[in-house]
């Protein structure tokens, strides 16, 4: 049968029928422990009772108006985001890429409104990922995403993180902003240390630039703070969110100080779907859970527990794991074998993970993950390592595909205790 979907990615022959908490269930009753959460999207796991209840009620009430009228839930969500962060204003979009587009437009407009329209360039950093729109592949600056799509959108310059002299040279009177992820997700869980973030903030202040943080992956509690940059104690000018903010419902947001947003006036930007009532209901429901201090403390302790397991695996399987990386519930390992094979081997043990650049295996479990689920994941990681150790020793060409291995760990979803998650 010919595939009716545009073949832009390799799809696994695996489909899920339903999900509950950190578990995904196939039609034939097998279950998988979901330490991918989409790609760090299902922040409260699957079928979270509060999200289900809120969205069901909203679906029966109102899906869409336009933002030509007031959307009270959107005003409320924006207010809550403002109260919880550095920001004064919020723009709602439908995806991360769109939130980033809004951020870059805002930065350019800031300088234009201040009488310096020639300041439009944005400096980004190698290993970045900012999305797949034409402008964001230019911001990302990764040749594989740029190839064959015509001239790269002008206005983005890239340097290596930590190369201060290169950064100094690349900033010119045409520069409007610096843009980076506090933890590079797709780039391989490279964490920007607090000193570096502080120094970048200082450079922005000295040179009159705006600091844009792309927290699309690291934000909304993923690292144990509501926003990851809070660990460094700095104040950005603009922050973008998406992924986890809707708990699985597509939405994005661009948060800014009033000053940074000062160029954005009536008519300067727009969206049809952004901030729609369904998305706003989802966003508010996620905040009901995530904004609780105890919730974030729990994320920190779950992150520590997971770290202990990953460090132990690194000690025991140094021939397979080179390094443990990441923060909170966005952690992973740089592998010695091909990270994609490692992910296949984990999936054979019914543990879902995601590969990233730099040969990294990334884990982003639901923020609601339970200690016993983290311990279970550790057993599956160990089983995958045991398999890969054997696999590595076999001559090239004669190695079985890791994904075809059958696990001996429990996978039967029907026998699983089905008690509701709190
Ligand atoms: C996923 C991601 C994006 C792009 O988000 P989309 O919703 O796919 O457009 C941008 N930046 C970062 C850091 C991301 O992780």
TrEMBL record:
Entry cofactors: pyridoxal 5'-phosphate
Coiled coil: none
Keyword Cell inner membrane appears in the UniProt entry: no
Region described as Disordered: spans on this chain: 395-422
Keywords: Amino-acid biosynthesis, Aminotransferase, Arginine biosynthesis, Pyridoxal phosphate, Transferase
Composition skew (Polar residues), residue ranges: 395-407
Record carries keyword Transmembrane helix: no
Swiss-Prot/TrEMBL GO biological process terms: L-arginine biosynthetic process
Any GO molecular function: transaminase activity
Residue stretches of biased makeup (Basic and acidic residues): 413-422
InterPro entries: AcOrn/SuccOrn_fam (IPR004636), Aminotrans_3 (IPR005814), Aminotrans_3_PPA_site (IPR049704), Class-III_PLP-dep_AT (IPR050103), PyrdxlP-dep_Trfase (IPR015424), PyrdxlP-dep_Trfase_major (IPR015421), PyrdxlP-dep_Trfase_small (IPR015422)
SUPFAM superfamilies xref list: PLP-dependent transferases
NCBIfam families, alphabetized: argD, PRK01278.1
PANTHER family linked to this entry: AMINOTRANSFERASE CLASS III, SUCCINYLORNITHINE TRANSAMINASE
Protein family: Belongs to the class-III pyridoxal-phosphate-dependent aminotransferase family.
Protein name per its UniProtKB record: Acetylornithine/N-succinyldiaminopimelate aminotransferase
Species of provenance: Pseudaminobacter salicylatoxidans
